[in-house]
Inverse folding.
């Protein structure tokens, strides 16, 4: 039967062609030439309508078997191609992880904010403070409620907030860690808590949406404003290694009473006025105050027995003041030319 021979020769041809393809794409194209919708084997089956029942049986069986054999062949060739590909790629991409690296000027360095954070940590640990940590995703209770921003307290508007879909928020200040300290530590204690904070606010020369703070909290008996001022002055003189001009003015934060803003004379313009200090000559750096009795109570302490002070230092602005950086956006820009100026 001529058709039977045709089918057999199709398989012989397929074997030849498919075994010599170079990649999977070629394999798929060639496969279609034999068993695709318009393939050679499919075309032959189309003429079977005119054959006798007996011939149809024989040819149908042969065609089905051939189709199966070609499919198997395609599968085998595909596996072979894949293995070859992995072998070649592995050889080409091999690298020796133990080979010594030639050190070059492309070495990374510690970010200036991390450098200054380490300095602040060293200063405070030498003063007997321990270091605490807290999560960046916080509860409304720790970030606001337990800090006396109850309900719709208008002071919430001073810290525009990113909320998560599960009812939590990205902490707007490290003061959230005050609440954790009060609940978990036994007074008296002295802690600092450095960390990244987030605010939904407009970015300008001195405001970022993501920045770093160091919280400080001291709780003990008879803690006074004198302790607070002494600690702040020690910090600033250690950091700047020179006398810097500061001013203390009343500041409102619901979790301290009294509250202060400790401003530093702008070191970018030496007090003359520039875009960093909004032309005032002063920069808000270190808000602070005595812990509000209500906050101590929320934290489970008796406010008649315990007192304390707290502060929240803006680390990015501290870096700006130290190096005279006139725009906060440089700090987290990832600009290597900028970062290379602070090797460590
Ligand atoms: C607070 O965040 C209070 N939790 C600080 C505090 C702690 C007060 C303990 C009293 C007691 P404030 O929003 O002012 O306060 O931020 C504190 C510092 O963070 C500022 O002085 C400033 O240095 C820095 N800061 C605030 N907003 C930004 C911002 N958008 N970009 C960069 N630094 C900022």
């Amino acid at each position: 039967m001529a058709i039977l021979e045709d089918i057999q020769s199709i398989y012989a041809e397929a074997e030849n062609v498919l075994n010599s393809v170079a990649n999977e794409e070629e394999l798929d194209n060639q496969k279609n030439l034999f068993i695709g919708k318009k393939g050679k084997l499919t075309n032959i089956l189309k003429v079977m309508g005119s054959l006798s029942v007996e011939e149809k049986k024989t040819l149908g069986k042969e065609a089905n078997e051939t189709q199966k054999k070609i499919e198997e062949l395609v599968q085998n060739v595909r596996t072979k191609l894949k293995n070859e590909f992995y072998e070649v790629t592995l050889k080409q991409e091999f690298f020796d992880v133990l080979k010594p690296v030639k050190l070059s000027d492309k070495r990374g360095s510690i970010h200036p904010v991390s450098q200054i954070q380490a300095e602040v940590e060293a200063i405070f640990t030498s003063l007997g403070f321990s270091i605490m940590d807290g999560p960046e995703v916080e509860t409304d209770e720790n970030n606001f409620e337990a800090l006396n921003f109850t309900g719709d307290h208008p002071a919430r508007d001073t810290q525009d907030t990113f909320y998560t879909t599960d009812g939590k928020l990205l902490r707007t200040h490290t003061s959230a860690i005050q609440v954790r300290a009060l609940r978990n530590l036994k007074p008296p204690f002295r802690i600092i808590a450095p960390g990244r904070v987030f605010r939904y606010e407009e970015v300008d020369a001195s405001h970022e949406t993501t920045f770093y703070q160091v919280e400080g909290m001291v709780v003990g008996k008879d803690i006074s404003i004198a302790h607070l001022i002494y600690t702040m002055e020690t910090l600033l003189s250690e950091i700047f290694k020179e006398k810097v001009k500061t001013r203390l003015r009343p500041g409102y934060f619901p979790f301290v009473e009294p509250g202060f803003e400790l401003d530093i004379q702008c070191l970018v313009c030496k007090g003359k006025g520039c875009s960093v200090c909004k032309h005032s000559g002063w920069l808000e750096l270190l808000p602070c105050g005595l812990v509000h009795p209500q906050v101590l109570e929320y934290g489970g302490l008796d406010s008649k027995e315990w007192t304390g002070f707290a502060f929240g230092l803006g680390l990015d602005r501290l870096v700006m003041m130290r190096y005279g950086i006139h725009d906060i956006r440089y700090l987290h820009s990832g600009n290597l030319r900028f970062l290379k100026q602070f090797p460590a």
Summary: The chain has a mean pLDDT of 91.
